[in-house]
Amino acid sequence: MLKSLYISRFFFIAFGMSIVLIVTGFYLPVLLYFGQFSLIVLLILTILDGFLLFNHKNPIAAKRNIEARLNLGDETLINISIKNKGNQPYRITVFDEPPFEMQARDLTFNGYIKAGSEEQFSYTFKPTERGEYEWKNLHVFIRSFINLLERRIIIEAPEKVLVYPSILQMKNFEFLIFNQQTQQRGIKKIRRLGHNNEFEQIKNYIQGDDIRTVNWKATSRRSELMVNQFQAQRSQSVYAVIDKSRSMEHRFEGLTLLDHAINSTLIFSNIALKKGDKIGLVTFSHKLGTQIAPNLGKRQLQRILDALFAQKTEFKESNYSLLYQSLRKTIPFRSLLMLYTNFETELAMHRALPMLKSINKRHVLVVIFFKNTDLNEELTKSPTTARELYVSTLAEDVINTKKRIAKELNRHGIQTVLTAPNELNVDTLNKYLELKSRGLI
């Protein structure tokens, strides 16, 4: 019992005042009696307060409400429910024990709870890393109306929660893609020109054929009505290829570039599957990582989600030669490859360029890399010192370097997406929809 008993600051204030009266009583005897009387009253009230706090074995019940699976980079509301099972009201102070990754020091809630009633407290948590997070116990301090003592009640509430790539963002983008208001959110609705079929052959017209499929050039040559015959478009193979090297460790809004790429891959994979394409996954750094063959269906999306959950940054240089050799062996058919990487210098790009060109000859390669948005703020400032001028010039050079890298890749026929991390999802989807509408995949 004593371990859970604490003395409040009001007790020390009252005790201090009594001592002052007693000390002063040596000079003014009348105050001595007041001091002694107040000390006796304080002792009686303290005993009564202890009885009120401990007359019920379990006066408080508490529960933390949190989802079993959280979304990377998305704020989550966490609720704490406190129920008073006693027969008297309490002033309460609630402390939660969150994961150390939160680095939270202010998860303290104060309130007043009536007998038999329930109170709710809440806070938000935005996970910035994938993996397992552990919450521990809830600590509730209760005080009676006398407010001289406090009783600490520890409610065992350990919970382990997994943080996955953002399923919430995935569902939001799925809604936007198939919603009429898509373009207002930055996603371009691109209609595929012509039929949503693949050309098969030219054949003689027979009654019932679609007049819109008449091939007038073939008709004029053969002097009889000829039509184009189409077959239903087959599912195309699409791969998300993720670079896990140290260049993907830079952070933007709390998330690494790797995490931004992982969230984008999940969103893009879901849309590609909804569009009827097969989706696969390849990760690499200095060595090969995960490889998932392209397939259709919800199970495939779950496989990709589970694989993305386990990805970690490798603090070494990317081996594009190894990537090329692996893709050559494992992907025999022409496919769309969405490569998430990051080039900070033209030298780094030129080292990878021969392999990127080789990959692009066999497949449709889209290189997705990132703008350094932190430098944009430096360009908006008016430099007043030599140092500020140097920083501004350096920032402008880095931004222009990224543009030159994109231009050089385009010059070699490689599709590019140079994007800010917060625009990655929209820009990646727009590029995929553009390529699909142009019939390049």
From TrEMBL:
Source domain of life: Bacteria
Gene3D superfamilies: Immunoglobulins, von Willebrand factor, type A domain
UniProt-listed InterPro entries: DUF58, Ig-like_fold, vWFA_dom_sf
Keyword Transmembrane included in the entry's annotation: yes
Segments forming domain DUF58: 202-368
Residue stretches spanning the membrane: 7-28, 34-54
Keyword Transmembrane part of the UniProt annotation: yes
A Pfam family that the UniProt record links to this protein: DUF58
Name this protein carries in UniProt: DUF58 domain-containing protein
Organism: Brumimicrobium glaciale
Species classification: Bacteria, Pseudomonadati, Bacteroidota, Flavobacteriia, Flavobacteriales
